[in-house]
Amino acid sequence: MQLLHTAAELRAALAGQSKTAFVPTMGNLHAGHVSLVELAKQHGQPVVASIFVNPLQFGAGEDFERYPRTLEADCGKLEAAGCDLVFAPDVAEMYPVPQSFSVQPCRSLTGELDGAFRPGHFNGVATVVLKLFNLVQPRVAVFGKKDYQQLLVIRELVRQFNLPIEIVAGDTLRDPDGLAMSSRNAYLDASERMQATRLQQELAGIRAAVQSGERDFAGVSAAACRHLKMAGWRVDYVELRDAGTLQLPTPASTHLVVLGAAWLGQTRLIDNLDFGLPGRVEV
Ligand code: PAF
């Protein structure tokens, strides 16, 4: 496995490749990332992963400084997973001049949910992903469903800028107790870790209720928020949405997603579950 740090080295190493499969990451890798690399291997070759903690997507007061940088351990995991090339630039390599051009994703996808609570976040994500796509020029790129809103933003980026890249979605991997794997789980202390499954349980409760016929979407979401608050969480949102548009479900919606973001102490956790409605065709 090659480890490269500059755009020039990356371009030279990938010259002539037309079937590259790409997994962009911010490092501090866990089994969820490894599963994305394994998925990438089914879709193209060589498999390239990037490791870059992108300052553009962190807001003031967020965890950019303390985000764990674990390059050596990450490379071990990527090599074991069969990754061919790791691109790990530093900030000066990715942003040699202040980034004054940026991608402004459409408000319909980013005006709510995480976009509302993290202003500028998806602008930073879309900008760095477009830069990485231009550098790697993959045929396929793999993104986790764990960041569901991000996945839809990237799909729309590719569609609206006519990028010849297929976006493949990887399922969320969970610990045995149901907690979605996330680099930020490392911030939880022992007591918070025990409580952390509660968010997923509330989302699963909403999914079960809707699959059993409940149609008061706002009511079940509000109840989940109340339960989390009573258990000591600070809730950003719990929302049921159409899984294809992230707009409120309509009678025509056949594929829904329930999304939540909430704070346990100093740690913000996000999770989601997408599901088809019984008796309808899942899209
Ligand atoms: O999901 C992530 O790790 C990041 O948002 C990404 C896609 C690598 C862009 O920095």
Briefly, what is this?
The protein has 283 residues and is α/β, with parallel strands linked by helices. Helices cover 37% and strands 19% of the residues. The strands form two sheets. It has a six-stranded parallel β-sheet, sandwiched between helices. A three-stranded antiparallel β-sheet has the order 7-8-9, with helices on one face.
List low-confidence stretches.
none
Say what the CATH topology of the largest domain is: Rossmann fold
Number of helices: 11
SSE class = alpha/beta
CATH A-level architecture of the largest domain: 3-Layer(aba) Sandwich
CATH homologous superfamily assignment of the largest domain: HUPs
Cα-to-Cα separation, first versus last residue? 38 Å
Average pLDDT across residues? 96
Describe this structure in words.
This protein has 283 residues and is α/β, with parallel strands linked by helices. It has 2 domains: 2-170, HUPs (Rossmann fold, 3-Layer(aba) Sandwich); 183-272, Pantoate-beta-alanine ligase, C-terminal domain (Pantoate--beta-alanine Ligase, Chain: A,domain 2), CATH 3.30.1300. The protein contains 11 helices and 9 strands. It has helices at residues 7-14, 31-41, 71-81, 91-94, 107-110, 114-117, 121-136, 148-160, 190-195, 198-211, 217-230, and strands at residues 2-4, 21-25, 47-51, 85-87, 140-144, 166-170, 234-242, 255-264, 267-276. The strands form 2 sheets. Strands 1-4-3-2-5-6 form a 6-stranded parallel β-sheet, with helices on both faces. It has a 3-stranded antiparallel β-sheet with strand order 7-8-9, covered by helices on one side. A hairpin with a 2-residue loop joins β8 (255-264) and β9 (267-276). α10 packs antiparallel against α11. It is globular and about 55 Å long. The mean pLDDT is 96. The chain binds pantoate. Pantoate binds at residues 24-26, 54, 57, 125, 128-129, 147, 150.
